[in-house]
Amino acid sequence: MHRHDTYAIGCTLSGVQSFRYRGAVCNSLPGGTIVLHPDEPHDGQAGTDDGFHYRIAYVEPSEIQAVLGGRPLPFIQGGISADLRLLSVASRILRDVDDPIEPFEYEDALFELANALEAAANRVSLRQRRLVNYAAAEIARQYLAERPEAVTLEQLETICGQDRWSLSRDFRVLFGTSPYRYLTMRRLAAVKTMLRDGSGLADAAFSAGFADQSHMTRQFSKAFGVSPGRWLTLTREAR
């Protein structure tokens, strides 16, 4: 089991792709779209002895929000959608590695993806939109993305001009995770980069803003399902 603070959007190309998600076992077949919500624990394995092939992309919730402009982040029940519009848009992004997508084309597809997700989730609500302070939450997200040091909700409250509990609620609605989880994942992303560049575990943990190496290792293993050392070994073997 592991999690991402991004959307995981994919398509099964052949076979049966099984995963545990929100207390249920889901089986993805060709012709559907997998949409795992940010920060939701899941795993993945073949559903039959024949194995499976798939492609998946990890899309930042902030990119979806850049299109939605403050409407609640779309949630696909069950993690799999049969919506043909969503499948068509996802296929534009899930390209072969030999056919890279151009930045302009990606932005165009991203706009369609955000709207297709919203339509498939059927969660458009003007009342909800009025209740969510997107501007304040986006200020908080940018602040957390740029600063690995410890912060508090009280500090974010001062920076954003919104009371801490409303900000915490809105952040979850808009970006699919809590402010603390978002900061933790930014720190872990920094740790990955430093480990790939040759830093030691203790130095990477300190530079990324963790209290110590043990704290970082616990958070890393909880998020990615493997220890930092094991992850680094697998990364080197894959090169």
How many discrete domains? 3
Query: Helix- and strand-based class?
Result: alpha+beta
**How many helices does DSSP assign?**
11
Oligomer: single chain
Give an overview in words.
This protein has helices at residues 61-68, 84-93, 103-121, 126-131, 134-146, 153-160, 164-175, 179-196, 201-207, 213-224, 228-238; strands spanning 7-15, 17-21, 24-28, 33-36, 45-46, 52-59, 80-81. The chain starts with 6 loop residues before the first strand and ends with a helix. It folds into three domains: 7-124, Jelly Rolls (Sandwich); 132-176; 181-238, Arc Repressor Mutant, subunit A (Orthogonal Bundle). The strands form two sheets. It has a four-stranded antiparallel beta sheet. With 239 residues, the protein is of the alpha+beta class.
Topology readout:
Layout: E1 7-15, E2 17-21, E3 24-28, E4 33-36, E5 45-46, E6 52-59, H1 61-68, E7 80-81, H2 84-93, H3 103-121, H4 126-131, H5 134-146, H6 153-160, H7 164-175, H8 179-196, H9 201-207, H10 213-224, H11 228-238
Antiparallel strand pairs: 1-4, 1-6, 2-3, 2-5, 4-7
Helix pairs in contact: 1-3, 2-3, 5-7, 5-8, 6-7, 8-9, 9-10
Brief summary of the model shown:
The protein has helices spanning 61-68, 84-93, 103-121, 126-131, 134-146, 153-160, 164-175, 179-196, 201-207, 213-224, 228-238; strands spanning 7-15, 17-21, 24-28, 33-36, 45-46, 52-59, 80-81.
